[in-house]
Input
Amino acid sequence: MGQRRIVSVESLTMTRLISPALLACLSLALLPGCSTHEEKFGDAEPVRVPSAIELTAATDRLLTVGEEAISSLNPATLATFTEAASEFATASGAPAARARADRFADVLLLARVPGRDAFYGADDPSKVDLPTTVRAGAALRAAFEATANPRFGKAASAIPGQILTPTSGWRSEDGVAYLFNSPRSKRASIAETSLAAGELAASDRELNTGTDADALEGLKGVSEAQVALGRWYSTLGTKQPMTLLPWANTLLGLEAQQAKAADGILAAGIPAMYDSAFTQGGRVIASPLTEDDSQSIGVAVSALGRSSFATLAAAAQRNLLDHARTDGTIDLAPADDVAAQAQYARALAIGLGATVRAERAKAAGS
Output
């Protein structure tokens, strides 16, 4: 769908995707000899740390893929693109980027079940889908931060009530909570429990929803379900192996907690996931673990990007950049797999945010 674009500082200014203040900051990253542009794992493959310019261009192109398909996206994929666009807008600070995040979030709000504050899934617009609702909550929080649109903050603040409603499957006993597949089910997904608990924590922290205690109960549930530090079976009460997608989502939920108890698990879980899924240089290891779902790599790179393991995150982000097609999609999944491409967009947007924060801190200290 066209030729690969050569990205320069001038072209990014013309597209209005980077604010002038940020542009000045990012220009420091392009100077020759910058130590942030190459790291090594001992004698292993050298890692070319992605620059903010590279991450901006790649994320922008993936978000354009989402914009072109916005009317046909299912709610979960729309939530991922909304979160990606919002992360991008917060990092960029540019009006055009904020406007795009606003458009994605506006469309996402249309995916609510009529008369409810919850969201439907891919199949039935009249039926609440809690995993989609949790993901929409994260997206709307990000959109509220990026745009300051009060409608997004109001919608996001209603999500904890949907998680904790008696019909959701959230069940607490003796200070430990899990999200069961249904109110009467005996099976609970560890990944969905972690994401829901993380959303309760983040909503309380950012929107004052009063759900901190509930979040900690979910965190305790995830912690007690470990079979080794940072490792779980997929479903509570079974010995079903956890493949990459639920593993990465479990870690993302723990990262949203921003709690010491979660940090201890992440300190072991993030490197363990990386070593199982990626080479030292960031390439994907082909195995049943990584081939479980087309979205798994993107979610894993998002988890790495939100972690304190900056070198591991940079290696995995570089791998995504190296797999970009001429149309901007990432060739680790089919170009028309918009759900996977949305995950790559979010992963790179998270990487951009971390890079921009680091460059701003460096500029402020110089």
Summary: Residues 64 and 127 are 30 Å apart (CA to CA).
